[in-house]
């Protein structure tokens, strides 16, 4: 049975999107262009109107594939000109380079960098306007991608939040961007972007795109209240815990000769070194996955339904490498988890906490 995905509003913006968003960071690395175009076709056929990408994709980030995902999407849009008007298209400007000198010269993210990155994305995407333009990670020093602790001694900020907002405002004023958002943000960052926007009459963020899944629920430790009270929408990424919550690693683990060869976490050491490669994350995933099976659900369906039904989430970003995966993710829409199952999920969290934060 297919359940209708009624569009939801993003923040105070006029953007209305499906509650499932197609993430595209596999396009250009695991997914070649012909298959990527078929996945885009299928998503549109099935009613998805929200596509998310980034200038640094595909992942894992390499100089050779920088911008490849946007180029693939742009080629698809050029072949399907009527599709652009049906879609909300989101992309991101990379934050400070984090060891990726091919993104830009210099280690920071200046106002000029934001504008140059946007113009590059517009060219690759072959579009005149980006519906939602997001800062991929903060310019200032914050713990992210598995980091746990804020260290004031590591601060290297060169471009203030106000300067970043003014650059984004220039893009909105020029008609190149409709609305703005953040990603991998903290409660402080969200509050400051909103405060300064209201104080100076600058664009207000509509969204924050942060990790949220059974293995990583730190968002519920304060950021969810911030988003709710400020009227900012959450775009949840990695709902399947980078594949850990599909069950495919339960027997073999994430590395070694028996690991699934084509899966991202098995193929790329850089990914395993981040939060998803922790033994504690795999141990917790195995518990959640068995809980799903005990309740007659596939692990992926339970993990997706968890995100799809949480009040904190406006739209859940799903990344796929096949048409079958896309269909499975969309078929999970409408699944309701009974209260007793949600209580068991919370009991596992109490015991194992958030190993992939």
UniProtKB/TrEMBL annotation:
Residues 20-348 form the NADP-dependent oxidoreductase domain. Keywords: Oxidoreductase. The keyword Repressor does not apply. It comes from the Bacteria. SUPFAM superfamilies: NAD(P)-linked oxidoreductase. One of its GO terms (molecular function) is oxidoreductase activity. PANTHER family: NAD(P)-LINKED OXIDOREDUCTASE SUPERFAMILY PROTEIN, NADH-SPECIFIC METHYLGLYOXAL REDUCTASE-RELATED. This is Oxidoreductases-like protein. It comes from Ramlibacter tataouinensis (strain ATCC BAA-407 / DSM 14655 / LMG 21543 / TTB310).
């Amino acid at each position: 049975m297919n359940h209708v995905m009624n569009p939801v509003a993003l923040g105070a913006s006029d953007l209305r999107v499906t509650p499932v968003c197609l993430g595209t960071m596999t396009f250009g690395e695991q997914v070649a262009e012909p298959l990527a175009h078929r996945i885009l076709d299928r998503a549109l056929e099935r009613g998805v109107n929200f596509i998310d990408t980034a200038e640094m994709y595909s992942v894992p980030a390499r100089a050779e594939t920088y911008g490849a995902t946007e180029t693939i999407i742009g080629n698809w849009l050029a072949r399907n000109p009527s599709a652009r008007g049906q879609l909300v298209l989101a992309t991101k400007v990379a934050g400070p380079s984090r060891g990726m000198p091919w993104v830009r010269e210099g280690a920071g993210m200046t106002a000029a960098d934001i504008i140059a990155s946007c113009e590059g994305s517009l060219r690759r995407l072959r579009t005149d306007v980006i519906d939602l333009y997001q800062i991929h990670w903060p310019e200032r020093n914050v713990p992210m991608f598995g980091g746990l602790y804020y260290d004031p001694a590591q601060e290297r900020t060169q471009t203030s939040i106000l300067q970043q907002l003014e650059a984004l405002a220039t893009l909105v004023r020029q008609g190149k961007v409709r609305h703005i958002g953040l990603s991998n943000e903290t409660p402080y960052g969200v509050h400051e972007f909103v405060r300064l926007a209201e104080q100076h009459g600058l664009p207000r963020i509509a969204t924050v795109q942060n990790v949220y899944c059974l293995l990583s629920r730190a968002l519920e430790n304060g950021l969810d209240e911030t988003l709710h009270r400020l009227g900012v929408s959450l775009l949840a990424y990695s709902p399947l815990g980078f594949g850990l919550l599909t069950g495919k690693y339960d027997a073999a683990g994430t590395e070694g000769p028996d690991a699934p060869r084509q899966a991202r976490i098995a193929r790329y050491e850089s990914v395993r070194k981040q939060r998803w490669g922790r033994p504690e994350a795999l141990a917790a995933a195995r518990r959640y996955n068995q809980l799903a099976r005990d309740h007659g659900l596939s692990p992926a369906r339970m993990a997706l339904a968890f995100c799809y039904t949480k009040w904190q989430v406006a739209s859940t970003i799903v990344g796929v490498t096949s048409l079958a995966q896309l269909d499975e993710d969309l078929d999970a829409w409408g699944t309701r988890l009974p209260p007793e199952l949600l209580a068991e999920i919370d009991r596992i969290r109490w015991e194992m906490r958030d190993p992939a934060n």
